[in-house]
Design brief:
With 456 residues, the protein is α/β, with parallel strands linked by helices. Helices cover 42% and strands 16% of the residues. The protein has 18 helices and 15 strands. Helix 5 runs parallel beside helix 6 and helix 11 (236-256) packs across helix 12. The model has no long low-confidence stretch (mean pLDDT 95).
């Protein structure tokens, strides 16, 4: 029989990971390199250094070192809001009447309300260390922009955020949090950049997309002395920083003498999922253990389940390097009625390679089903989950219900990446019965795939 498992398990300060884990070191098939959009040759460290900080470029290109020391200053910052708890969802198990054991790792216990702070502080730290004045970035729902503003405020860096226009208008309070931390927030597309003006000319009245905001942020970073661009997801370096989630989870499970069977995470650009599964995937890659990994994405933006594994632009303005990834095409903009986050057209190259190698599964879920799971979870476990996180809740519940049918006592771990306080417009829609599901047609996707760059 299993011993008594506490509702929450925390690591002690001396048990906290001191190094990040780089899963690429253990991958036989490495993720494909970023390509220069003009020459289609792999981006060199020097080329990347025009956009990103030096140390982050080194991390981006490092496919060899499995462990990378976390600088003391970052460890000190982590201590302010980590470790995050590993929670046994006893109440959820009971209401589902399932023999499955459900755990979640909760990353919402900081002001930014999500896991994004784990990478924000790392990226801001390396920018500061390089002697830069500030950083630029994009934000969609606002979690990344908020996390980065917090990190920059702490380190005394300037922070310029381009916020997708529709979110800027729908989520005014997110903007106020960022401004309180000292960031400047510009709705994107804007008239403040060349690429923004071009997008506005071509698509008057557009409410923007992450791809547009990235183009604007990169333009400002590369045209302003002492600035670099930082990105909150997708990149290898971000997955590396987010491995803190998986490392803590694994250490907590070891403390409990428990091993998860199924690990589930929502996937937008792939950073929380990549971080959560990293050390477990490492064991699987080295043949030491086996796990099922499930990526959950919205049916309205199904990069893994309906995308193509191809080189694509990371942004709409086509100023960024090309990345090989599961993608819907950089011109893909999810339907405006999609309220549930995870709107990015592409997916982390690392996760794309793992998925292509069949080391990981993916499912897509419709947003009304996601919000039903969110509501059920909130009512029984107390936490109001972010819509993004609720994709993982949906599939954790579905897997637990399968266990009920088969009588299997599987141990399920899912990533609860954040809280839902800033997604109340989406909750309002759901509560008013006005939420609908939009699934792109094959024709729409074909149109978007037609814009993929031709790379041999
Ligand atoms: C940004 C975000 C996500 C999705 O991003 P990934 O890079 O795929 O992890 C998921 N949940 C929350 C709460 C977020 O803020």
């Amino acid at each position: 029989m299993e011993k008594n498992i506490p509702y929450k398990t925390y690591l002690n300060e001396d048990e906290m990971p001191k190094q990040w884990y780089n899963v690429r070191a253990d991958m036989k098939n490495k993720p494909a390199p970023l390509l220069n959009p003009a020459t289609h040759k792999p981006m060199t460290a020097e080329e990347l250094s025009a956009v990103f900080c030096k140390e982050l470029v080194a991390q981006e290109l490092d496919n060899e070192n499995a462990y990378i020391d976390i600088p003391q200053e970052i460890l000190d910052f982590y201590k302010m809001y980590r470790p995050s708890p590993l929670v046994r969802a006893y109440c959820l198990e009971k209401i589902l009447d399932t023999p499955a054991k459900i755990y979640y790792k909760f990353e919402g216990n900081n002001t930014s309300g999500s896991h994004k702070l784990n990478s924000a502080i790392a990226q801001a730290y390396y920018a500061k260390k390089q002697g830069l004045r500030g950083v630029t970035t994009e934000t969609g729902a606002g979690q990344w922009g908020t996390a980065l503003s917090m990190a920059c405020a702490y380190l005394g860096l300037d922070c310029k955020v381009f916020m997708v226009k529709v979110s800027y208008e729908q989520k005014p309070f997110r903007r106020e949090v960022m401004r309180t931390y000292g960031a400047s927030v510009t709705p994107s597309p804007s008239e403040t950049t060349e690429v923004g003006k071009k997008i506005l000319r071509e698509h008057p009245g557009t409410t923007g997309s992450l791809g547009c905001a990235i183009s604007e942020a990169v333009e400002v970073a590369t045209h302003t002395e002492g600035y670099r661009y930082v990105l909150g997801s997708v990149l290898n370096q971000v997955l590396l920083h987010q491995s803190i989630i998986g490392l803590e989870s694994k250490a907590a499970f070891e403390k409990l003498g428990v091993k998860p069977d199924i690990i589930i995470g929502c996937a937008g650009g792939g950073s929380n999922l990549g971080g959560l599964i990293a050390p477990f995937m490492g064991e699987k890659l080295r043949g030491e253990a086996d796990y099922r990994f499930i990526a959950v994405e919205p049916a309205s933006c199904p990069s893994f389940t309906r995308g193509k594994y191809a080189y694509d632009f990371c942004d709409t303005g086509m100023v960024c390097p090309l990345a090989k990834m599961y993608t819907l095409g950089s011109g893909f903009i999810p339907s405006a009625n999609h309220a549930g986050g995870l709107r990015y057209h592409g997916m982390s190259s690392t996760l794309s390679q793992l998925y292509d190698d069949k080391l990981m599964e993916a499912v897509s879920v419709e947003q009304t089903k996601v919000f039903e799971a969110a509501q059920q979870f909130a009512r029984i476990e107390g936490i109001l989950p972010a819509p993004e996180s609720s994709h993982a809740i949906r599939v954790a519940i579905d897997e637990a219900m399968k266990c009920k049918e088969t009588g299997e006592e599987k141990t399920i771990l899912f990533g609860l990446t954040g809280t839902g306080y800033f997604a109340l417009v989406a909750y309002q829609k759901f509560n008013d019965g006005e939420m609908s599901d939009y699934i792109p047609t094959d024709e729409e996707l074909a149109k978007s795939f037609a814009g993929l760059p031709k790379v041999d």
